[in-house]
Amino acid sequence: MIKIQKYDKLLNRVGWGLISFLIFSILFRIQFNIDANVLTRQNIMIIILIGALIIYNVFRINYINNELLYSNRVFDMFRIIEIVLFSIFMIGSYESIEYLVLIFPLVFSSLYRGRKASLYLLGLSAMLKFGYVSVSYFLLNQDALNNSNIFDVFFRLIWVYIVMFSIINITAAFSGENSKNEQENQRLVIELGEKYEQLEAAQNEIKNQYNKLKDSNHKLEDTNTRLTSSIAEFYTLQQISEAIGSIFDISELLKFVNDVIIGVMGVNYSTIVLLDQKKNRLKVQFTNIQNKEDLVILSDNINCKLLLDTLENGKSILENLVIPDEYDFIKKREIGSFICIPLSSKSRKFGLILIEHKNKNTFTEENLRLVTTICKTVSMAIENAELYANMQELATIDGLTTVYNRVYFHQKFESEFKLAKDLGYDLTLVILDIDFFKKFNDTYGHLFGDVVLKSVAQTVKNNLRATDTVARFGGEEFVIILPRTTVQEAFEKVESLRQKIANNIVKDNLISASVTASFGIACFPETSANQIELIRDADNALYKAKDSGRNCIKISKYIDIIK
Predict the structure, then answer these.
(1) The pTM is what?
(2) Residue 312 belongs to a domain with what CATH number?
(3) Both 176 and 42 in a single domain?
(4) If DSSP codes are grouped into helix, strand and coil, which group holds residue 67?
(5) What pLDDT, in 10s, does the model give residues 116-168?
(6) Rg for the chain, CA atoms, rounded
């Protein structure tokens, strides 16, 4: 509701108060019948005024409550109506009250519409008042005026309107000052509103910048986290790659990888399981599980369907809410989370890596990705290591006889001699030569000669212990290393070999022939003091056997245990 409507509502309440006063006044006069001749005319005028005021107030309230209908012109019209009603119908009845009542519309008009509008209303009231006095004096010749001094009446009216004029000026001045204050306040409010909008805009801009900075900070933190993870991953893979380049033994490499996983992942347990290709069964190769009962549970159930299917399908498992009874390899073990990743290449399946933690919800997809990358690297390393081992084996195996060659013999002989010397046990060396081998080549051809070499080599190889070593020394000569074997024990073993070679008939298509061999034996420390002497003495013993008619065994010249 606008301010002018508030003024009119207040005047409306004053109007109802005045109506109540007038009604009470009429009833009082009628009751006491005061001055009956005058009372009748005045009462009629007051009754008409009461009726007019009631109609006017009802009509005005509809305008006051409707913002679309109400305007400054309506306000001015209401004030004119009030001046006319109060000036005409209250003349001669309640002059003191009339002047007091007239003050309200004049003051409200000056407060809202200003001095000029109020003076118009004051002029209208004065015109009506002076007109009434003039008409009453000059035309109607009322006794009340005839008996009074007309000049006193006019003087009193002039004095009253001067007072009203002064009140209007005071209220107009107050209204003007108030209007200026309101304008200044409005200006300040507008400026404050603009400042507030600017401040709000600046605040929104700061908020937007803060949100952008916050988002950038989150992105930076995420990037930093990913970078840290990537650096850790890169460092881990670098360590493994360096190990692959420097560790050629597959067992040592897997142990190193297992230790790296434990350190990088911060897990409780890490286990590397390899597949036995011959038996097609999984076997725990490396683990940091110390509890014997837990290790037994894992080892006994490592070939459960879940792990075998994981290896077969090549699909990893990430489980963060472990229910022990659902996994055979866990059961009573305190495991809350685990990751299982297959170790495999395109051509082969090598095994599994099983990583376990006691707490639940431990592993993430990033952990799985890292371990999967490690497994791929390790799988390639295993494949390369096996390939390297095969190449090493091919480099140390004689292509014709499939026993070790002379290069491997010297490496093995050096290491075995060092162990025998350090640990103080006997080491026997045997050199054998196929008798009349040139005759087989000349008579039956070199292909049959090759068959003879293969036959003798396999006979010797099949009758040795796992710790013994047989190698082709050159041509038709073979050398045998017998660790922890005395001269007597070696003689008995070699005699058995000699007989088996002699009793074996070598056949190739239509050709068949019997073969014999001569043997020379030397032993550390019984016959020889060092490696060179051991080879030389065994070779000399071989020549002694050849000189003795072949197909026999001779021992180094330094002792003569058996004749």
Answers:
(1) 0.47
(2) 3.30.450.40
(3) yes
(4) coil
(5) 878 888 888 888 777 777 776 666 555 444 445 567 777 777 887 788 888 88
(6) 64
